[in-house]
Amino acid sequence: MKKNVLIPGIMVMIVGLFVAGTFIVPAENPVQKAPVPVTVASPGPGDDEATFYENTNYGGTSFTVSADVSDMRNISGVNWNDKVSSIKLGKNVCVKAFQDINYGGGAWWFTGNGLCVRNIPNLVDFGWNDKMSSFRITTKEDCGGAEPGENEVIFYEHKNFQGSSKIASVDNDVPDMRYWDGANWNDKVSSIKIGTNVCLTFWIDINYKGGKTEISGNQDCINDLLNLVNNGVNDKISSFKIRSKEIGCAKQ
Ligand SMILES: [Ca+2]
Ligand SMILES: [Ca+2]
Ligand SMILES: [Ca+2]
Ligand SMILES: [Ca+2]
After folding, report:
1. Across all residues in the chain, what is the average pLDDT?
2. Mapping DSSP to helix (H, G, I), strand (E, B) and coil, where does residue 125 land?
3. Phi/psi of residue 11, nearest 5 degrees
4. Minimum-distance ligand to the CA of 135?
5. For ligand 3, a single-atom ion, which residues have Cβ within 5 Å?
């Protein structure tokens, strides 16, 4: 019985390979001009690479690279100037994006998280949609920026992990963020990084009242909430609890 099932399967594979093979005949001697090693239509970046996408949410065409590009008008013959709309960052890299060619104009850093691929689905959020004209790829260490430990959460004043920040750990309950270790963080948080092992529960009113949201870290990765506008809670969080995922999210 099994043989009868297997043989047609293998035949399908062979035919499939043959058909696929007809599409990977190399182009005849293209003139290789660009020195930049580029992988076109890659599934995503390795640890020391970044992948750039034409559209938001990783749509359209893409390229993957591990080296600086001083002029995006020609990346292996393709004009990528002012086109990038989303990025995936390998865990070890920092991308320094520049508005003009030759590393000119305004700049912005996008930093890997040290654990896994960091996704930047929408450069509109950063005011960087269709603006990049050159970039440098350096190491995460070079750019700095804190990441939460497995039992930690980092809150940020502004979206995209900008402005002031504050770290909280498992079992760190803050019923009234107007008075959090002497600082007023009420209705200020705009982005959050959540460590792998925690469940963060927050409320939009003090004393764990009002609308409640539970968000857990990912198994192997930091959970990035880049812009709480997208979660409907920007500048609204007023109290929170953090629990280890093994214990489970905090009850009311
Ligand atoms: Ca675009
Ligand atoms: Ca530009
Ligand atoms: Ca804010
Ligand atoms: Ca509030």
Report:
1. 86
2. helix
3. -60, -40
4. 2
5. 188, 190, 235
- Tokens 């529960």 found at: 201
CATH topology of domain 38-141: Gamma-B Crystallin; domain 1 (2.60.20)
Instruction: Say how far apart CA 15 and CA 48 lie, in whole Å.
Output: 37
Centre of ligand 4 to C-alpha 236, Å, is 4
Give per-residue pLDDT as tens, 208-217.
Answer: 999 999 999 8
Provide the 10 A C-beta neighbour count for residue 190.
Answer: 23
Q: Ligand 2 centroid to 45 CA: how many Å?
A: 23
Q: What is the DSSP letter of 238?
A: -
Ligand 1 centroid distance, CA of 56 (Å): 7
Report how far ligand 2's centroid is from the alpha carbon of 137 (Å).
17
If you measure from the C-alpha of residue 39 to the centroid of ligand 1, how many angstroms do you get, rounded to a whole number? 18
3-class SS at 101? helix
251 falls in which pLDDT band (50, 70, 90)?
Answer: confident
What is the number of the ligand closest to the CA of 155? Answer: 3
From the CA of 131, how far away is ligand 2's center (Å)? 4
- CA distances to 11, 93, 134 from 100, in Å: 53, 21, 6
CATH for 152-244 (3.50.50.60, 2.60.120.330, 3.30.470.20, 2.60.20.10): 2.60.20.10
Cβ < 5 A residues, ion ligand 1: 83, 85, 130
Statement: residue 12 has pLDDT above 50: no
* Tokens at 32, concatenated: 């290789």
